[in-house]
Amino acid sequence: MYNNNRMKNIDSYTHVRGESIYVDDLPILGGTLFGVIFDSPVAHAKILKLDTSEAEKMPGVKHIITYKDIPGENQIGGIFPDEPSLAEGEVHFKGQPVALVLATSKRAGHAALSKIVMEVEELPVIVDPREAAAKGEIIGTQRTFKLGDPDGQWDKCAHVFEGVAESGGQEHLYIEGQGAYAFPVENGCIRLVSSTQGPTQVQRAACRVLGVPMHKIEVDVRRLGGGFGGKEDQASPFAVLAALGAMHSNKPVKLILDREEDMRMTGKRHPYTSDFKIGLDKDLNIIAYEVDFYQDAGAAADLSPAVLERSLFHATNSYYVPNVKARATSCRTNVPPNTAFRGFGGPQGMFVIEAAISKAAEELGVDRAVIQERNLFIDGQPFSYGQITEGCEAKNAWSQACEKFDVEGARKRIAAFNAENTFYKKGLALMPICFGISFTNTPMNHARALVHVYQDGSLGVSTGAVEMGQGVNTKMLQIAALTFGVNPDRIKIETTNTTRVANTSPTAASAGADLNGKALQIACNAILARFKTFIKDSFKASSEDAVELREEGVYIDGKKVDWNWETLVQKAFLARINLSEKGHYSTPKIHFDKTTEKGHPFAYHVYGTAIFETTVDCVRGRYEMDAVHIVHDFGKSMNRIIDKGQVEGAMVQGVGWMTMEELRYNEQGRLLSNALSTYKVPDIYSAPKEVNVEFLETAGSDLAILKSKAVGEPPLMYGIGAYFALVDAIKAFNPKANGLFSSPMTPERVLMALYNK
Ligand code: MTE
Ligand code: LUZ
Ligand code: MOS
After folding, report:
1. Residue 2 has what pLDDT?
2. How high does pLDDT run on average in the chain?
3. 59, 169, 287, 546: which could form a disulfide with 268 (CB 3.0–4.6 Å)?
């Protein structure tokens, strides 16, 4: 109970009973207006005329807001100022917000949309990132990471292979759509409840558009019905519109997107198309690797430059390559601005080197696992960005996965099955991962926490962490319970609120628990130190070190004294000791220099290996994932239930991205996969039949909270293994089916590959 690394997610009780509160569950305040967005029906155009007069006459419509009504700056771009809150003069993607209707009901608001007249002059639409790059539609600058001398190696390599690899986009499909509820409070202040991973992002964007200082807007977040990166930046446009509506009307404004609006208006995982070149020596050591990433950024920068950077950081996945040249270009297209999605460019980067290894393996007639294993990182080797591997578990995870799940036995079993069966083929693939933990933008790696011990012995904890289903609040609660040695029931995790904890980084980069947990530890330890001094003085103990708080008891030199936690708190309060504390943490040791593209950007790396087994129906192209076996580096997991859930969930999400989720826009920039009937996400039937997650017991890292490594994103990249397991099965049926490096591997693609010549 007191150091419970098997504690249930504290939200499970209210989740199961349907009592957990999301934005749409807040009681409606009298006078509330409902915001409905009029979004661009075309992907790229000049706006010639916008006429809202007929719509304004519709029943229930109170206000229609356009860019002209913005009191501050019409700008919500975070990294680059290239995204208006409401379109002004031009539109750049279908789904771009143009006007905001405020009505007495959502239905009345929707009814008014068809009465808004927008006359446009259509402009050319680009949906292909390579076309965008060719036309100079580039966001930011191209980036190149370089190690060694790749250009000088190709002649020396025994084998050189080139190819193209493509990975598709991915819809976040958080269960709770984007939304916010804004309440005007006195003196032009606004309280803004938002489903956001970045309360401060929302606050900053709203202040900019409303033209008010940050202290006038308080953002509050209870929890999210999922974020997956989709609410790291993109909760802001909608929260800003709710706040704008509230300021304009001086009424509470609620704005929640329904599913189709959300899919149409918001950005997704970036599709990538990339060129690769890989060189190996005769022993299959990778000597040189060159890759050129083209990222489909969509119509505005959003987080694309940061995502792009992470593709470069993870361009060689878990492999040591002494000579690397990785170049990346962010390409502006006329689709909604693509954004953070679990892995943040890492998966896209890793897919390409996995494709390159596959290409080499198929050309050389060797198993890809041989090349993979031979090139895994060991301690002391540099990444292309200069950081040196420490505590590297790449080989350890790989060999334990092979051993625990008897990969040799599986191969024999699969070979026998494939020899016996003509129209069913099995395939197998291994997928090692290596993911860096920290925001790659060093200044973002800090957090704060606020702890109150109330005089009755209960505690209230506020941090900058946002709960989105990943269990960070449970981890925060564990930290406070552990530090004070109290029953977890005494602790309440408060909402994430910019007035209690300011200037937060978004809960992202898998670093939420590390950053906020460390800040919380610092705050708790400061109160604990005061308690210890008080106990020492009260009991005339030899020193503070002799005092211990555990299991609600007070111990001196290991012996229980007659105070318990509650008496301690009451007496400390009467002695006028400060029972509150704020903690601040910033990750030590990390740095990165963008001019040289070298540094030590990550606190540590997370490793692991997955083995996928699949069966393909070679008549129909259908397939099942028979099993996935994972050995994952958790460090010293502080909550095995939550962490295992994160690995399973991320893995399935990765499998979905690689195998079935096919995001499609047409040439006019219209989203074709715009509903759950046209966009297939993994369900219980398509999840691997057997999922084994083994805890690789490793030392962890001092920079991980309680040595428990960050777990949110890394396991998504296991999903890449599912792709190559399918390729393996396809080749068992059709050995000529080479160069299959275009994901997702949908049943349709499988069928075509089975019969291509
Ligand atoms: N798990 C659930 N259930 N829901 C989510 O939205 N987001 C993922 C991951 N796990 C997510 C999730 C992403 S993209 C990140 S960055 C991390 O959680 C963020 O939380 P953490 O930093 O506390 O791990
Ligand atoms: N967000 C961000 C992220 O701003 N920087 C990052 O490095 C990052 N990494 C993963 C996910 N979100
Ligand atoms: Mo996660 S993509 O860092 O929100």
Report:
1. 53
2. 97
3. 169
